[in-house]
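subagent[fold] <- orchestrator: predict structure for attached chain, return tokens only, no commentary.
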Amino acid sequence: MMRFQDKVVLITGAASGLGRATALQLAQEGAKLAIVDRNGAALEETQGALRAAAPNVEILAIAADVADEQAVRGFVDQTVARFGAIDGFFNNAGIEGKQNPTEDYGIDEFHKVVAVNLDGVFVGMKYVLQAMHRQGYGAIVNTASVGGIRGVGNQAGYAASKHGVVGLTRNAGVEYGQFGIRINAVAPGAIMTPMVEGALRQIGGDDWEAVGREYVSVNPMKRLGRPEEVAYVVAFLLSDQASFINATVIPIDGGQSYKY
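subagent[fold] -> orchestrator:
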């Protein structure tokens, strides 16, 4: 399929994990891509992977931190200046934060996680919505989490931020549907990305793979998810095939969030 031929999609957190997998999917479907990540070296690696998968892909790569409002305004402006519009936005950048019970969770750590996962998502939507409102159309997909629709334990900052993303998504979807702009979110469960591996290592240390096996054992599908399985859903939600889906949060977790 070439659902994104000549369409422009902006992706944050594009250097690895879900962002990179989605960029690869969209590049193969003809999209022009603006990819953003604070890790400039990893962003270069992503560019190489994109060009290998889709040699004719047009890419604008920008190293930036989504927790910096001026940087966010800058990469949105650069995308519009380069491509003329933003058809789709995968508002994906996020961090896990430290694993601690709530009573031991540091306020500085809480603010750090919220600054990226919630403030960053809000500011990204704010400036992309301004561009989409001017052009009269667009689609946004925010990355929430199963930790945004139920408790996960020992992740106060992460859970609070992702619950906030769910609220922002539903609120903005209700506001902007009338202007031809759809806003949805995906809520991944345990997907085998560098961020999830980092969380497993926090919990299990040298025995982190055993923790991963425990996660698998309680999942109805008895496995972890793959980044491309999230990318397929994001691509669908950004495409015209999802033209009447708005203000919705879709779990991608093998059914785990409905098990308990």
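orchestrator: received. Logging for downstream: The radius of gyration is 17 Å. Helices lie at 17-28, 40-53, 69-83, 107-135, 156-176, 194-204, 208-218, 227-238.
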